[in-house]
Design goal:
This protein has 2 helices and 9 strands. The protein is mainly β and about 160 residues long. Strands 3, 4, 5, 6, 7, 8 and 9 form a 7-stranded mixed beta sheet that branches. The protein has a two-stranded antiparallel ribbon with strand order 1-2. The longest helix has 13 residues. It is globular and about 55 Å long.
């Protein structure tokens, strides 16, 4: 077992049996794009961690990138949409199927031009995009996102 000092406390990190530390969490950003009381959702294909579930546009945070920069880049890469007024709302940490540790930061944004239409730019990763009402969410939904929304989280009401 490895130990390190952090703020005066001894922290022990469990090893994976080979004397190595477990992999670091993956850090991602997911974006609630809001339009006319609807949220943009896409159904992920089987090659992603959230296989065959609905989720928000987003992806991995790149080195040196802010959450807002990541949100804008990922939304553009996945949907072709330009967004504005990007606000970080919350973060959560999930051990997903005990295989991956995901730290997800959720942001809210609006379309730069309300007449834009989402495009499926990465069809190998996503089946397509659709606008859904918060009271009529698509199923099956990515587990951590579903739990957060079912617990009463509302991206329309959060003030930052």
């Amino acid at each position: 077992m490895s130990t390190s000092k952090f703020r005066g406390k001894i922290i022990q990190a469990s090893e994976n049996g080979n004397g190595e530390l477990p992999p670091a969490p993956e850090i991602g950003v997911a974006v609630f794009i809001l339009k006319d009381n609807k949220i943009l959702f896409g159904r992920r294909r089987s090659l992603s961690i959230a296989a065959n579930t609905y989720g928000l546009p987003g992806g991995h945070l790149e080195f040196g990138e802010s959450y807002e920069e990541c949100a804008a880049r990922e939304v553009k890469e996945e949907t072709g949409l330009d967004i504005k007024n990007i606000e970080v709302l919350t973060s959560n940490s999930n051990l997903y199927y005990e295989e991956k540790h995901l730290d997800i930061t959720y942001a809210r944004a609006y379309l730069s031009n309300p007449n834009q239409t989402p495009q499926n730019i990465e069809p190998e990763k996503c089946e397509g995009w659709e606008w859904c009402d918060l009271n009529n969410l698509p199923e099956p939904m990515f587990g951590p996102l579903k739990e957060m929304l079912q617990s009463g989280f509302n991206p329309f009401l959060i003030t930052v």
